[in-house]
Structures
1.
Amino acid sequence: MRLTRPFKITFAAITLVVLAAAAIIWLLGRTPFVRDKVAGWVTDATGLPATVAAVSIGLLRGPSFELRGLAIAQPPGFGAKPLIEVGSARITAPWSSLWGDPVAHSLTIDAPVLRPAVAADGSDNWTGMIERLTAGEDEETAPAWTVGRLEVREGAVEYEDAASGTRLRLTAITIGAADVSPAADFPLDLKVAGVSGTNTFLFACEGRGLADPDGGRFAATGLNLRGWAGGEPLPLAGVELLGKIKAVTFDSVAGVAAIDGGRFNLAGIPGEFAGSMHLGEPDETLLVFRTESFAPRAPAIAFGTPLPPTADEKAFGNFQISVEGHMKAGMLHLDPIEGRLDETAFSGLFVPDARLIRVTADRIEVDRYLAPDQKRGRDKKATLEAAIAQLAELDIDAKIRIVEARVAGARLRDTVIRVERTDAGSQ
């Protein structure tokens, strides 16, 4: 019995010390000193001014750390809104992580907002930060970290390109992953909503992910895709997307991102796609897009741009196209384009930003594509003028060469149709 009282006193003293230490740590985490210290670390790491609204440190059921109200400012010349904002980020871990390999039970990031931007002179607001974050990395092997559950909730991306006038907002970004560790694949679930101009879209995919920061390898494989888009000029019901992707990869060492084995069905248009992009050499971008044969009238209605009625009801009955895309001087060039419309095989190129089209077709019967109420008969000049007038309504710079055209009962060889942009007139 003599040992009982000293033991109780010792146990009580240890408990008080532990509770006092926990209280001190808990209180220190809420002081301006700790907030400023954490903000200073972020500033040193990114090279951009950072602020933190609150920091919390917990010890119940294992150590935890929560950061709230993180804001990383823009580089000079990119506006007042922060480049990065995080509503809160919380990490929980077992006690063993304090003296062993870094292991986290969970990492939860709420309401992150990214605002990447490109200025009118082509400079961007993220390259300097990334270069600073990756500079001076030693080549020692990183510890084998693990995150049991990773969640990103209610994220957003607001992209603006002053050089091209492009604006894109992605919202409600949700990412879920389990058992995340370097160089090992894990289940991945992604959901995102977005707004671009008058269009709204929803997108979701699920598959397997891989992150290997030491090797600079990142990948998502076996992806199943689902999507929807609406807004003008799409109809009220919008259009739906279903698809699969074999692999999406990014090699941070080489700076190359790639998509392999993509298949889709968009508003009844079946096809496949692939591509690659070199971040340091935009002109090495390659996009490959091919559709299977499909009847274009129904998809055109789904996209809110119905094809015009034609003298031949079977016109626009079948369409297939294959496209390769490249970047040249900052503009997307779709070259070559090859395909078939009904019995007409064609090839050419298209520059969307310039609305430039160059097409060569082997043969076409022009009469069948005219409006039903347009006069058909012996006047081939009037028939050709009617066809050109329909093209001119599209406001394009087009040069179309037809090896053999059947017009108003006559055959014309090596016919060239030239249509200029609206502001330059048409002929």
2.
Amino acid sequence: MTLTADVAPTPNVTLAPDDEEEKLIAAWEQMGSTRVRASIDHGELPPELVKFAWNWLSAKERISEKHREAVQSAQTKAAARASAAAERAASAVELQARVAESADRRAKLAIAIAVASAIIAIVNVVVTYWLAGK
């Protein structure tokens, strides 16, 4: 019998030979867990197959749970990577903001120096003109 490595059928259940078990499992795989569970609940399965069916359903549920955990773990890792990337991006934006503020201060200082130079030049021209006219 091949369910999974960690699932063993109940020893007191008498089942058909292995190839019939495989056919039964293949049929259940096609039906899906929900329909198999409904067949058990409605008494549509022979009593000697009920424990085997429950074992198969349990194995399917464990496999499904492991898959969910793996997907969730991958999503958690992806979210952590995205968070780290967002933090790096935020740090880069903060650095760019500081550099822009520094450039802005230097530009304002350059404008102030230019205005002062212009005023000094105007005063120099006025004084020179005034002294030349005397």
